[in-house]
Design a protein that fits this description.
This protein is α+β, with helices and mostly antiparallel strands and 197 residues long. It has 4 helices and 4 strands; from the N terminus they run ααβαβββα. The termini are far apart.
């Protein structure tokens, strides 16, 4: 065999080997591209799922914040209404006709008296609770009490109602205290509504 034939045979073998290697490389490259495409598709799918979850989380967060803000505004409106309501209630109590006012004070006092020897402290401008009123209360207390309620010379700014004092113990039944108690109870209900919703 001549040198040229040997070279051609070597080149032919090399080309055949190169074609084999190229074919194998193309097959591997095709497999890798298919695998990469599959991974990219899965990555895209996972990215979309994560994006949707993030969007849902963001939406839920914004919705919860909006609900809380609305609930706070609603509570503020309720408080404003309560302010108006309790101011009106205070004025109505103070402006009760004398008979109704005395009847209301009689019930309050009879329910609040513990021993019958308390001092009754009233507002500086109070005209309807007087010595005669206290005498009537003493008569109504019955035999189980001492019948010694007395009208105190001490006057305080109550805005209506009275304080029963026995020694150092005071039972405040002024309109301010009675209305504040009622308001606290209503505010507890409002607070529950705010956090339940």
């Amino acid at each position: 065999m001549e040198a040229e034939q040997v070279i051609e045979k070597i080149l032919a073998n090399a080309k055949a080997e190169a074609d084999k290697i190229k074919s194998k490389a193309e097959k591997i490259q095709a497999q890798e591209q298919a695998k990469l495409k599959e991974e990219l598709t899965e990555y895209k799918k996972q990215s979309e799922i994560l994006a949707q979850k993030a969007a849902k989380d963001k939406y839920a967060h914004l919705l919860a914040a909006a609900r809380m803000d609305l609930a706070k505004k609603f509570l503020a409106e309720k408080r404003k209404i309560l302010d108006d309501l309790f101011n009106q209630a205070r004025q109505q109590l103070q402006n009760l006709p004398d008979g109704e006012y005395r009847s209301f004070m009689t019930k309050l006092m009879l329910d609040a008296v513990e021993t019958g020897d308390e001092e009754v402290i009233i507002d500086g401008g109070e005209k309807r609770i007087d010595h005669e009123f206290i005498k009537q209360i003493n008569r109504q207390l019955g035999p189980s009490y001492k019948h010694n309620l007395i009208l105190s010379k001490e006057k305080v700014n109550l805005g209506g109602g009275f304080i029963l004092k026995r020694g150092k113990i005071k039972n405040n039944l002024s309109f301010n205290v009675l209305l504040a108690r009622a308001r606290r109870e209503l505010e507890i209900v409002l607070a529950k509504e705010l956090f339940e919703n």
